Amino acid sequence: xxxxxxxxxxxxxxxxxxxxxxxxxxxxxxxxxxxxxxxxxxxxxxxxxxxxxxxxxxxxxxxxxxxxxxxxxxxxxxxxxxxxxxxxxxxxxxxxxxxxxxxxxxxxxxxxxxxxxxxxxxxxxxxxxxxxxxxxxxxxxxxxxxxxxxxxxxxxxxxxxxxxxxxxxxxxxxxxxxxxxxxxxxxxxxxxxxxxxxxxxxxxxxxxxxxxxxxxxxxxxxxxxxxxxxxxxxxxxxxxxxxxxxxxxxxxxxxxxxxxxxxxxxxxxxxxxxxxxxxxxxxxxxxxxxxxxxxxxxxxxxxxxxxxxxxxxxxxxxxxxxxxxxxxxxxxxxxxxxxxxxxxxxxxxxxxxxxxxxxxxxxxxxxxxxxxxxxxxxxxxxxxxxxxxxxxxxxxxxxxxxxxxxxxxxxxxxxxxxxxxxxxxxxxxxxxxxxxxxxxxxxxxxxxxxxxxxxxxxxxxxxxxxxxxxxxxxxxxxx
Length: 479
Prior knowledge:
With 479 residues, this protein is of the alpha+beta class. It has helices spanning 3-6, 12-27, 54-60, 136-149, 201-220, 247-266, 312-323, 325-332, 387-403, 427-435, 438-444, 446-465, 469-475; strands spanning 32-38, 44-50, 62-65, 98-103, 109-110, 117-125, 152-167, 189-190, 225-230, 236-245, 269-272, 287-295, 354-356, 363-366, 375-381.
């Protein structure tokens, strides 16, 4: 029995998809295929195999060091690995042992910017076929299964802001090398437009040459791109995508981010999904997650109201999002930088409230009574979030509200004056709330929450040891 069978994934559909992958590799005369998995931060890692090895890999998987799942955002391993039982007291984690990438042939694509190259997204399993419990695609799949047991599917659309700059330095000297814990000097960049002419055609046209290159490649990947928009700040843009069910929008997000960065780099640009780059007059970027539930029996939108704006299902689901917003922020806003965005009068939320078509609230309700397109727009996230964890947190929190028929309270017409629970001001505050969250522990598992808290705490601790520009400016002269 090969690994895909042990994992219970070698279904008839998967076999057919694997045969189609082999056919496409031969037909396109591909030379290599990238096998990628989304790590704990939603960053794609993996290995590249020559085309002749792919048929065996789809059945038997490909090994990689488990330490890839133990690294913080500086690529430094944040857990001990050399003692007995490794970081989690189990033999499969000892000594930086291998875990396995198992390619999902239904995700196969040819990369338009590297047409000799195929690509597949992988699930992460142990050698005996068990899913690795800290694999974030697996975590999201479990949350979706719990939602399915309640009779619903998760339906989500992406609205993603990011910055796109021209690279000013394209070569790396010997002094530019990085090391674990010290990622290296960020690239030197210049603006593509001056910003602050929101949605003007002139600002868009200034960026059109690279935007058209991006659009062509994203379309070539088959991602459901809807629109390209010039955003408010300098060199800031927004891409939106049609909604999809279950894993599909999360898979699309990790591929979109990776593709955007790769295509930009190849053409002399730098794309960043960092929330608020430290550049003059720059605006924060958000990731607004549009979401609704589909009734598994009827296929209808469970959020569509009769005479009301939002159905009772939608109201209770939204109440869960609001009640657990502080703990879920550790997933929707997983970087220290992302909390610079939560400020009043900024088209971003600063407290857990909802409103009808109001861009100052956390959850914006879009639609009308009887409208089958009625949905929630959660404006809390940053574009650097791991999409599997961001979406899993929405499912877990919303499902809790649904089970309790929770009440979200009245609509907030004055979002920055309404009395409500404030969103966390720092990543440390969000991690502390997650540590104590019974709902997210129940939905994601104690093992995963403890792992994630430790991972993020390592990131926070490294930050707290650094002397910031603010400290130097504030204290160096006066004291």
